[in-house]
Automatic annotation (TrEMBL):
InterPro entries: FBD, LRR_At1g61320_AtMIF1, LRR_dom_sf. Signal peptide: none annotated. This is FBD domain-containing protein. It comes from Anisodus tanguticus. Residues 261-335 form the FBD domain. PANTHER family: F-BOX PROTEIN-LIKE, F-BOX_LRR-REPEAT PROTEIN 25-LIKE.
């Protein structure tokens, strides 16, 4: 019989409550020894403290804070279907055998290209990969056909290149630096979601670099059918150019002048604010409408408190509806909630 074991520690500073919960995990693991398979095992919200060290059996609990050294025997488990690792140190001495794993998630991890390659080589049936709050990888190569979904959040190094010709769904969240995604590297991509915040110390000096990064992201997914952007990513870049002509010139100067021949749906989240605040995003909308030649739908999603919709928002909507569209079938939808 296969089971899934998920534990979430109570949000409490009470030492007795924490010790009681630790004891309950030990009991569950002890009784689970009679099961033939444990398909999923995760432990959340346990902060490492010396006072609990003697009560934690690391032979049982693998997913703990303070970069626990992942045991060698655990790299060979053909029963696992879903695995979530947090703050673990990975260093497989031999080959990895997670042959039935379909979902893998790493968070708060220091990784290397070699370790990641070895792990992925042992997951031939992997369908979904999530990497969150991590560092150390510079080139992520995924060459097997079954992996279709890739999520990346808060990568802490300067450069990450993604080579995954078979993924169909890509999500990138969090603080952005340089992420190179070339079209040949994600040739099968259908859906792309970017909610990034470009964060540089010297804003004036790095404006050119930021535009280049945004250009590479858009060109790298020019063939997708669904593109979703967070406005705070785009605004962070373009709001620094207050003049609309300057914003347009920046796009053309940095070779944004290309078409999106397969893009059918675009969605921009958190679209709100005054008319002046949204001028920068409007330049991007105008550009996308001009170059998305087969676009079906452009969704602008905004959130308001009650019926608090400003007159500015109505003016913005009217202006956007007047923008020229290269696709005769393109509709613009304003979603408010």
């Amino acid at each position: 019989m296969a089971v899934s074991l998920d534990f979430t520690f109570p949000d409490s500073e009470n030492q007795n409550a924490t010790l009681d919960y630790l004891s309950s995990i030990h009991r569950e693991l002890y009784y689970s020894k009679s099961f033939e398979k444990i398909r999923k095992f995760s432990v959340w919200r346990l902060r490492y403290e010396e006072r609990y060290a003697k009560d934690v059996d690391f032979g049982y609990i693998l997913l703990l804070l303070k970069y626990y050294k992942f045991p060698q025997f655990a790299y060979k488990n053909s029963s696992l279907r879903e695995l979530v690792l947090s703050r673990c140190q990975l260093n497989p001495c031999g080959s990895v055998n997670w042959s039935n794993l379909v979902s893998l998630s790493f968070e708060y991890m220091k990784l290397t290209d070699a370790v990641m390659a070895k792990v992925l080589s042992g997951c031939p049936n992997l369908e979904c990969l999530e990497l969150e709050y991590f560092s150390g990888i510079h080139c992520l190569k995924i060459n097997f056909v079954k992996l279709r979904e890739l999520t990346i959040q808060d990568y802490y190094d300067e450069n990450l290149e993604i080579l995954s010709p078979y993924i169909q769904h890509l999500e990138i969240f969090g603080k952005g630096s340089e992420r190179r995604i070339e079209k040949r590297n994600v040739a099968s991509l259908v859906n792309a979601i970017f909610r990034l915040n470009f964060d540089f110390e010297d804003q004036e000096r790095d404006l050119e670099k930021e535009c280049r990064y945004l250009m590479e992201l858009l060109h790298g997914v020019a063939h997708v059918k669904y593109l979703e952007l967070g406005t705070w990513c785009i605004e962070d870049l373009l709001s620094r150019y207050t003049n609309e002509d300057e914003q347009t010139r920046r796009f053309e100067t940095h070779n944004f002048n290309g078409s999106f021949p397969h893009l059918k749906t675009i969605k921009i989240h958190n679209f709100y604010g005054s008319l002046s605040e949204n001028k920068s995003v409007q330049s991007l909308i105008k550009y996308l409408l001009k170059h998305a030649t087969v676009l079906d739908k452009f969704v602008l999603a905004a959130s308001f408190l009650g019926s608090d919709m400003s007159l500015d928002y109505v003016k913005i909507a009217q202006e956007i509806l007047s923008f020229p569209r290269s696709s005769p079938h393109a509709s613009i939808v304003f979603s408010c909630r």
